[in-house]
Amino acid sequence: MTPLAALVAVTLLDRIPGVAYGLPLVLVAAIVFAATHHEDPDKIKRATFEWIGWLGGILGGVLIAVWLVSWLA
Amino acid sequence: MGKQEPSGSGRVVAISPDDGSTIDLKSPAVAALLSWLVPGLGQLVQGRRFKGLLFMAALVPTFLAGMWLGDGRVVYASWKPGEKRWAFICQAGIGAAAIPAMIQSWRLEGPKKQPAFLSTFMVPPLSRGQPVSPAYATALAKSDPGITTDDFRPLPPWQQFRPSPPPGMLDRTPADQLSIWHKRLGRFFEIGTLYTMLAGMLNILAVYDAWSGPMHPTPRDEKGKK
C-alpha cells in the first residue's frame, strides 16, 4: 500500500462512520471470488490479494467520489 | 456443470484452471445441495478439503456477524403487503441457517398466530394491528426490550399489536415492530442486513463451484497471459 493510499484509507475510516464495517465484506468477497476461480491454495491466496485490490479500488473510488460530493455540497 | 470423463467411467469431472488436472465432482447435484445447506460442505464431500473449509470459514462467520450486529432481528421472511422482505431472497442463499425464518413466518401467519416454540428468533416484525396469540404477546413483551404488554390490546381470542410510538418519534407516527427495531438498532439493522445478504449471495457462488468446479478464465484472459 502506498503512503497516499494509506492516508486516504485512514482519512476515510476517520471521517465516514461505519465504513470500517465494509472492510471485512471486501475480504470475504475477495476470498470467495478467488476460490471460485482457482483450485490450488497458493493461486487462491494470490488471487485473493488481486481481488482485494480490484474490489477495494472500485468501492474506495466510489466512496471517495460520494464523500467529495457531500463535502462540496 | 462438469463434464463426463472421456474414458466412459461415468465420473463427472472438472478441469482445474491452475494445472489442468481433473477434479472429481462425484455427484454434483448432491454436492451443490449440501453446499447450499452448509457453505463448503459440498466441497468437503467431494474431497476438496481446502476449498470447503475456506468457504465455511468465510461465509458462516459473515452470516453470524450480521446476525449479531442486527441483534438477531435482520433475518426474517415476510411477504405481507407493505412489509415485503426482499433482502431475504439473498439471505436464503446461506441455506440451512435461513430455513427457520421461513418456518417462523409460516407459523406466525398460520391459524395459531404464533411462531414455533414461542421463540422470537427469526420471526418477522409485527405490523400495526396484527393479531397474535396471547402466549406470543407475553413472550414478545418479555424478550423484546422495545415492547411491553401495554402495546397489545385484547381482541378475543387474540391480542392485537397497537404500540405507542417509541420515545423520540412523532406522536402521529404509526409505529410497528420494524420501526421500533430501527429506532433501537440504528444503522446496525442495515449493516447486519448487508452482512447476511452478502453471505447468502456469495454462497451461491460456492454452490456453483460444487456443481461445476472452478470457473475458467475467459479466452481473452488466457490470451493476455500468453
Question: Can you characterise this structure?
Answer:
The complex is a heterodimer of chains A (73) and B (226). Chain A has 73 residues and is an all-alpha fold. Chain A has one domain (3-72). Chain A is 81% helix and 0% strand. Chain A is built from three helices and no strands. The termini of chain A are far apart. The mean pLDDT of chain A is 87. Chain B has 226 residues and is mainly alpha-helical. Chain B has two domains: 3-67 and 201-225, no CATH class; 75-200, no CATH class. Chain B contains nine helices and eight strands. Chain B has helices spanning 28-37, 41-45, 49-69, 87-91, 99-109, 134-143, 177-185, 187-212, 219-225, and strands at 3-4, 12-15, 22-24, 79-80, 83-84, 131-132, 152-155, 158-161. A three-stranded antiparallel beta sheet of chain B has the order 1-2-3, with no helix packed on it. In chain B, helix 1 (28-37) packs antiparallel against helix 8 and helix 3 (49-69) packs antiparallel against helix 8 (187-212). The longest helix of chain B is centred in the C-terminal third of the chain and has 26 residues, at 187-212. Chain B is elongated. Chain B starts with a strand and ends with a helix. The relative contact order of chain B is 0.17. Classes of the chains: A mainly alpha (73), B mainly alpha (226). Chain A binds chain B through residues 17-18, 21, 24-25, 28-29, 31-33, 35-41, 43-44, and chain B through 16-19, 21, 23, 48, 50-51, 54-55, 58-59, 62, 65, 69, 187, 191, 194-195, 198-199, 202, 205-206, 208-209, 213-215, 217.
